[in-house]
Automatic annotation (TrEMBL):
Localization terms from the record: Cytoplasm
Principal cellular location given in the protein's record: cytoplasm
Annotated protein name in UniProt: Cilia- and flagella-associated protein 52
Keyword Cytoplasm: yes
Keywords: Cell projection, Cilium, Cytoplasm, Flagellum, Repeat, WD repeat
Gene Ontology CC terms, in alphabetical order: cytoplasm
InterPro entries linked to this entry: WD40/YVTN_repeat-like_dom_sf, WD_repeat_EMAP
Length: 113
């Protein structure tokens, strides 16, 4: 899965099941600036990424029992992550859409609920 940050400076790439990594690329400089494993060992694979519209250093990843918010720290060349609290909900998150003001994240699941 791929997404461009809203300022079009960064490209976020999510690898497949074989690597499971998130890499952030600086498009102008044509270099990878940071990356890490996309999920915790206790969850399944991450399947997609979606960039916020107003905060261009923030994006979301979702997949099998995982939903995470990421912040690109360009100065320290690292990603900071926060797991989204979904309680006891066990779903495969398959699609994401963020409102123009970044206030609401809509997430689709394999079960449709």
């Amino acid at each position: 899965s791929l997404c461009f940050c809203s300022n079009e400076q960064y490209l976020v790439s999510l690898g497949g099941k074989d690597c499971g990594s998130i890499i952030v690329w600086d498009i102008e400089q044509n270099i990878a600036i940071c990356g890490t494993i996309a999920t915790k060992e206790t969850t399944g694979d991450a399947l997609n990424v979606c960039a916020l519209r107003q905060r261009w250093t923030v994006f979301v990843s979702g997949g099998d029992q995982n939903l995470r918010v990421w912040h690109i720290d360009r100065d320290r060349k690292r990603l900071e992550v926060q797991d989204v609290a979904v309680g006891k909900l066990r779903r495969e998150f398959t699609g994401m859409c963020i409102t123009e003001d970044d206030e609401i994240l809509y997430v689709g699941t394999m079960s449709g609920d």
